[in-house]
Amino acid sequence: MRAPSKVEPGLKMPVVYLPHGGGPWPFMQDSVLANARMYAKMTEYLEALPNVAPTEPEAILVISAHWEEREATVMSAPNPTMLYDYSGFPPETYEIVWPAPGCPELALAIIELLEDAGIGCSADGKRGFHHGAFVPLKVAYPEPFIPTLQLSLRGDLDPRAHVEMGQALAPLRERGVFMIGSGMSYHNMQQLMGSMRRGPNSGEVIENSVAF
């Protein structure tokens, strides 16, 4: 697979930040989900994701909060495997496949862009797609033909460093790369699921939310 080249002049791929929900939620029966209506809306949102791009992406780059390394690390396998980084879900959710091809050439281009900006970056040839990537993308792009990579966060989670990473990677938007930030604004699943079971009229006040 060749590295993405420049797309039509004037076209620039967007950068999208999307919610990927909890675990493998789109592939579970509604009866198992605590709030099927909420997840139905999220499914509609993800199914419309391809419409955001002005043209079909040459490649997809996912940055998810579920992968941290000492320094920025990009997956470089030509055919990434699956990484089921969740537990306690129905057996069938560990058989999900989304066999999108990788793009080692794009991985090298990412490393070069980051290193030119003075940002260290490594390649990981064994890393597979984790749920922050394959869950939303299997809904948005059920036919996995677009080359897809993941880029880790830095373990120090330094905001300035990550802004600089984004700035260094910005030229990829003009080469047809659709960049996606995958995550949620919270990750206290125990509190979330408990609140949904109790319902919106429970009168519950979450102390952390008030403090925020």
From TrEMBL:
UniProt keywords, alphabetically: Metal-binding, Oxidoreductase, Zinc
UniProt-listed InterPro entries: Extradiol_dOase_DODA (IPR014436), Xdiol_dOase_suB (IPR004183)
Stretches assigned to the Extradiol ring-cleavage dioxygenase class III enzyme subunit B domain: 45-192
Cofactor(s) it depends on: Zn(2+)
GO molecular function: ferrous iron binding; oxidoreductase activity, acting on single donors with incorporation of molecular oxygen, incorporation of two atoms of oxygen; zinc ion binding
Coiled-coil intervals: none
Tagged with keyword Lipid metabolism: no
Pfam families: LigB (PF02900)
Family: Belongs to the DODA-type extradiol aromatic ring-opening dioxygenase family.
Protein name: Extradiol ring-cleavage dioxygenase class III enzyme subunit B domain-containing protein
